[in-house]
């Protein structure tokens, strides 16, 4: 047994630490297709003081720490290091303060997104980002750490836009509070925004104060089908260009619809589809819907009436699962590029034509109102030629995005996934990021090797 494990066992009660292979296996992976790595121990602390003590020990033994919420990350950011420990915050689920009149709440990092919104609903409030397929598992700490976004981010913004204050434990084992409850502030550097999206590499988040939004007076959901992917994506750019007020604009191409029909027998037409939602007073939502409908129709779209028991967001929820089920034994290769909205049609076309040239089936979907597109391919890891082709396509899509002024990741972060392309996007500023990491985490024990290598 390594010394750090002995020391951790002295520090924590028996039910807060495990070295059992089954437990280590559970935390060895995230939802990416990357191979898992077992840590030497998994810990379930329940307070920031315990976390600070764990970090101080890890620092002493130079042991890497990977913090884990639900492990739903898609780029390997939650995969531990083989000589590392996992700090699993999933038992820290309390709502510690609630100020409904200020539209603010303070929570521990392990609370699940849907559970928080269930609690807030009684007061007519919600935390909007709505990660498309993982709201029922993703934790608030994980969402802050990846700056998660989702279905309603078109209207309301992503997670970062809602963080007021954080309590964190740095790589030196210090507990610090950053930010405050003021909505508008001009004092000092914005460390809150720095932690958001840092994928557990700067600090462990132990408390999050969020601002909230009021639940809309009414909601209107609609679906439009299109003859091809090009017209559907042109419609999205037009809707955005006209500045129409939509809460959600989700695009699913015909390959995704086909996969969904296969998995869930939805029996919806195998065509590209836009799912739309409008929020506000009924008069406003219907006026917006009418103008949006005109744009869709002009571009060849027609209204799709879903069956009574079919909710667009439930259908959308199953997209990744449906693609996975298409070819058992195949792994998913994915990206989550984001770019200026006028390039949507060009990017969707590029994804499909590039994949077709290599004989690989492409699936594109996403929160496209944000200029965010997921391109997913299925390939066999043990088929070298096929796997390399899919990787080539993935890299080509990301490089094109960067050329267009976009980003490698609009949503899932970098993790272990696209580190080289991340450098191509950010250039010299990556060196500055490394210096910032060394200030928060001088011994580089917090999720080292994620986002970039030192
Ligand atoms: C089917 C499916 C659909 C998805 N859809 C979306 C989507 O629409 N939008 C979206 O943004 N994402 C989506 N995701 C990705 C994922 O759900 C999000 O990134 C989510 O925010 C991760 O939360 P988590 O609790 O699972 O974090 P984890 O996977 O546990 O961790 C993610 C990262 O954050 C770090 N971390 C976690 N907790 C803390 C903490 N307390 N302190 C410091 N670091 C921490 C981890 O070390 C890791 O680097 C989807 C995933 C799946 C499987």
Question: Overview of this structure, please?
Answer:
The protein is α+β, with helices and mostly antiparallel strands. The chain folds into three domains: 3-88, Uridine Diphospho-n-acetylenolpyruvylglucosamine Reductase, domain 2 (2-Layer Sandwich), CATH 3.30.43.10; 95-214, Uridine Diphospho-n-acetylenolpyruvylglucosamine Reductase, domain 3, CATH 3.30.465.10; 240-403, FAD-linked oxidases, C-terminal domain (Vanillyl-alcohol Oxidase, Chain A, domain 3, 3-Layer(aba) Sandwich), CATH 3.40.462. 36% of the residues lie in helices and 20% in strands. It has 16 helices and 18 strands. The protein has helices spanning 3-11, 21-26, 48-61, 113-121, 140-146, 153-156, 191-195, 229-241, 254-264, 282-298, 312-317, 319-326, 344-357, 384-403, 419-426, 429-440; strands at residues 17-18, 41-43, 65-68, 85-88, 95-99, 104-107, 125-126, 163-170, 175-179, 203-211, 213-214, 218-225, 248-252, 273-280, 302-303, 331-338, 362-366, 372-379. Helix 8 packs antiparallel against helix 13 (344-357) and helix 13 (344-357) runs antiparallel to helix 14. The longest helix has 20 residues, at 384-403. The radius of gyration is 22 Å and the shape is globular. Flavin-adenine dinucleotide is lined by residues 30-31, 66-74, 77-78, 89, 109, 131-134, 138-139, 141-143, 145-146, 148-150, 199-200, 204-205, 320, 411-412, 447.
């Amino acid at each position: 047994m390594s010394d750090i494990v002995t020391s951790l066992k002295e520090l924590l009660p028996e039910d807060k630490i495990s070295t059992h292979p089954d437990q280590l296996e559970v935390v060895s992976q995230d939802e990416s297709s990357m191979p898992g790595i077992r840590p030497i121990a998994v810990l379930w602390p329940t307070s920031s003081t315990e976390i600070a003590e764990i970090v101080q020990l890890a620092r002493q033994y130079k042991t890497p720490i990977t913090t884990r919420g639900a492990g739903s990350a898609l780029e390997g950011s939650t995969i531990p290091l083989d000589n590392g420990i996992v700090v699993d915050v999933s038992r820290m689920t309390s709502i510690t303060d609630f100020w409904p009149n200020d539209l603010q709440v303070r929570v521990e990092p392990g609370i699940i997104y849907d559970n928080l919104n269930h609690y807030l609903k009684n007061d007519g409030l919600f935390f909007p980002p709505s990660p498309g397929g993982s709201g029922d598992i993703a934790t608030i700490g994980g969402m802050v750490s990846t700056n998660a976004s989702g279905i309603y981010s078109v209207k309301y913004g992503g997670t970062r836009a809602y963080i007021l204050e954080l309590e964190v434990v740095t790589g030196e084992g210090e507990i610090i509070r950053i930010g405050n409850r003021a909505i508008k502030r001009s004092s000092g550097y914005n460390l809150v925004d720095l932690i958001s999206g840092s994928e557990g590499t700067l600090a462990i988040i132990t408390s999050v104060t969020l601002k909230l939004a009021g639940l809309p007076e009414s909601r209107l959901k609609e679906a439009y089908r299109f003859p091809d992917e090009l017209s559907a994506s042109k419609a999205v750019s037009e809707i955005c260009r006209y500045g129409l007020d939509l809460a959600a604009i989700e695009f699913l191409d015909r390959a995704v619809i086909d996969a969904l029909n296969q998995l869930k027998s939805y029996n919806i037409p195998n065509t590209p589809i836009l799912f739309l939602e409008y929020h506000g007073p009924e008069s406003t939502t219907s006026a917006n819907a009418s103008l949006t409908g005109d744009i869709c129709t002009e571009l060849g779209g027609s209204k799709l009436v879903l069956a009574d028991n079919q909710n667009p967001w439930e259908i959308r929820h199953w997209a990744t699962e449906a693609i996975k089920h298409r070819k058992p034994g195949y792994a998913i290769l994915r990206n989550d590029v984001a770019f200026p909205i006028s390039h949507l049609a060009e990017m969707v076309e590029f994804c499909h034509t590039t994949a077709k040239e290599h004989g690989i089936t492409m699936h594109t979907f996403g929160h496209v109102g944000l200029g965010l597109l997921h391109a997913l391919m299925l390939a066999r890891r043990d088929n070298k030629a096929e796997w390399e082709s899919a990787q080539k396509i993935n890299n080509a899509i990301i490089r094109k995005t960067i050329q267009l002024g976009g980003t490698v990741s609009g949503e899932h972060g970098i993790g272990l996934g696209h580190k080289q392309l991340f450098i191509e996007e950010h250039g010299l500023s990556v060196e500055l990021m490394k210096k910032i990491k060394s200030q928060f985490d001088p011994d580089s024990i917090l999720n080292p090797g994620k986002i970039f290598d030192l």
